[in-house]
Amino acid sequence: MTHRFHDDAPVGRVALFPGTFNPFTLGHASVVERSLPLFDRIVIAVGVNIEKGMPPSIPAVEAIRRVYADEPRVDVVAYGGLTVDVAREAGARFLLRGVRSVKDFEYERTLADANRGIGGLETVLVFSLPEYSWLSSTVVRDLMAHGRDVAQYLPEGYSLDC
């Protein structure tokens, strides 16, 4: 799969923020915004998750790119395969993950151990702000399926009509 990284992106502390981001919510955006002071560059990687039945979505990538159009330290790519491989390609030594609950923490701990063992990547966990602790892409998709307006749960500039 072809990745597009900013040619003028700074090098240094690079974090890969992988997920299906279907859709990219205010919770995801909060993790990115609060992590920018920690890293020189963040690569948001929209990937395949067979369990969630979601292929990488070029429209979703473009929608997230629009959110960060004025932030040169954020790249957005689509990928398939192993997260450690796209991290290596992006020059990332860190994985960035958001955690809403103890359940998320347990899942992320297992992934962190695997990614450290397979690819030598360290995982940085950023805890959800309380107002987003319930917010997930699954909840937003369910609301959409029932005809609800979900704009209040999505970052400014993000459009579902890609």
List keywords for this structure.
19% strand, single chain, five-stranded parallel sheet, 162 residues, alpha/beta
Give the termini distance in whole angstroms: 20 Å
Helical fraction: 25-40%
Low-confidence stretches: none
Q: Which structural class do you get from the secondary structure elements?
A: alpha/beta
Proportion in β-strands: 15-25%
Mean pLDDT: 89
The beta-strand count equals 5
So how many helices?
A: 5
**Main beta sheet, described?**
5 strands, parallel
Shape: globular
SSE sequence, one letter per element: EHEHEHEHEH
Strand order of the largest sheet: 3-2-1-4-5
Q: In angstroms, what is the radius of gyration?
A: 15 Å
Structure description:
- The protein is 34% helix and 19% strand.
- The chain contains 5 helices and 5 strands.
- A 5-stranded parallel β-sheet has the order 3-2-1-4-5, sandwiched between helices.
- α1 links the parallel β1 (14-19) and β2.
- The protein is globular.
Secondary-structure blueprint:
Elements (H helix, E strand, L loop, with lengths): L13 E6 L6 H10 L5 E7 L10 H10 L6 E6 L3 H8 L3 E6 L2 H18 L2 E6 L9 H9 L17
Parallel strand pairs: 1-2, 1-4, 2-3, 4-5
